[in-house]
Amino acid sequence: AEYDIKNIQWTTCKDFTVQRGQEQIEEYISTWEFHESWLHWTQFLEEEDTKYSKRYHYRVCWSTPTRRKPIPRATASVYFVIEVSKIKPATLPVEVFFVLETSRLIHRPGECRFREKWLKDIIENKIILIESL
């Protein structure tokens, strides 16, 4: 089946700010398909200065609280990195990638389709681990 992978227009390197990055991550997440019971919050973690770029790290924490269990037993995190080049023209867009907390696979916006199952699997595995302890 054909599926249209959604993306957003990412800001240019010269227009990037930490706040703008967080807003754009939220905008990008709004293109994902997930059940309305999922809640998330986004947090800026740190700025990393490398030779050719600056990398801005964010965490998006996901959970599915319910009326019976308003405090979730486990959460799932998705880590975003927004890279602002020091050598490419400042009018080019920032580079963005993200990883799930249990994986080293790098996902790039516009190249992969988000799966709600990824979050469910992380939380289920954490609950299994907690119950086994």
UniProtKB/TrEMBL annotation:
Per the record, what is one GO cellular component? Answer: cAMP-dependent protein kinase complex
Instruction: Please give the Pfam families that the UniProt record associates with this protein.
Output: AKAP28
Q: Which GO terms describe its molecular function?
A: protein kinase A regulatory subunit binding
What PANTHER family does the record tag this protein with? A-KINASE ANCHOR PROTEIN 14
- Protein name, per record: AKA14 protein
